[in-house]
Amino acid sequence: MFFKKKPLTQTSTNLTLDHDRIPKHVAIIMDGNGRWAKQQGLPRVAGHQRGMEVVKDITKAASDLGVQALTLYAFSTENWKRPANEVGFLMKLPGRFFDTFVPELNENNVKVQVMGYIDQLPADTQRAVNDAIAQTAQNTGMVLNFALNYGGRAEIITGVQQLAQKVVAGELEASEIDETQITNSLMTAPLGELADPDLLIRTSGEQRLSNFMLWQLAYAEFVFIEQHWPAVTPAVFEQALITYQMRDRRFGGIKENNSDVK
Ligand code: FPP
Fold first, then answer.
1. Taking CB atoms and a 6 Å cutoff, what residues make up the pocket around ligand 1?
2. Which residues pair with 21 in a beta bridge?
3. Model confidence pTM above 0.85
4. What is the pLDDT of residues 76-91, one digit of tens each?
5. Whole-angstrom Cα distance, residue 181 to residue 160?
6. Which of 31, 117, 22, 114 is nearest to 61 (CA)?
7. What is the rounded average pLDDT for all residues in the chain?
8. Which residues belong to the annotated binding site for substrate?
């Protein structure tokens, strides 16, 4: 055999992190809470509870490393299909998380934002989220952006409907709808130039997008890791960043120093 198949995900065991090339925006699909719990002989919700503690650890690690925006997929528009007790538990998590963690978010200058259909959440979940947003609004460091009751296709539909309404109202020409218009109509618009993640991490060995940030991930690097979310440590997170740094991002172009360029 002359050619060896390239592994899907390059490993990076002996390399160290380059602190000058930290991805600005990291998005994470936090998968595997249920499987982790099952492995431990615990109910599924115990996986979500442990997952919440890991959110704290990774938020702190990302902020310390200089990540500017961290988006976490906490609840999708499809997750309502889960058993009522699990949905109820997941709806209580933001309250528990912010009750215990807002002081530390403030110590670390981390600002909370939320994207998703928040008005469809239970009233106390909405209150917890809005309180955390207000209590951290003055912070200027990393943005901790929770995707809560979020779906990528729904987000695009809502954004396009808003643009269509502007066309009907005569405020916009159909021909003026371009990438910038669509970007500005999505739920990541408040992130400004940080709207598009540089790196997507998905835990638990699954390699799919599950309706997450479909527009914004167009040029992101994907890193899939084997650990279930509740087993992710800051060292595992750092390893994913090292894997990202091994990638060659070209955004559809060619390498700047490519000697073949004529
Ligand atoms: C996917 O694992 C995980 C979720 C649907 C929920 C993610 C939520 C957290 C990690 C906690 C969120 C914390 C805050 C602060 C809101 P799964 O249940 O699909 O796992 P499985 O695929 O193994 O069943």
1. 30-35, 48, 51-52, 55, 74, 79, 90, 93-94, 97, 229
2. none
3. yes
4. 999 999 999 999 999 9
5. 9
6. 22
7. 93
8. 32-36, 44, 48, 76-78, 80, 82, 202, 208-210
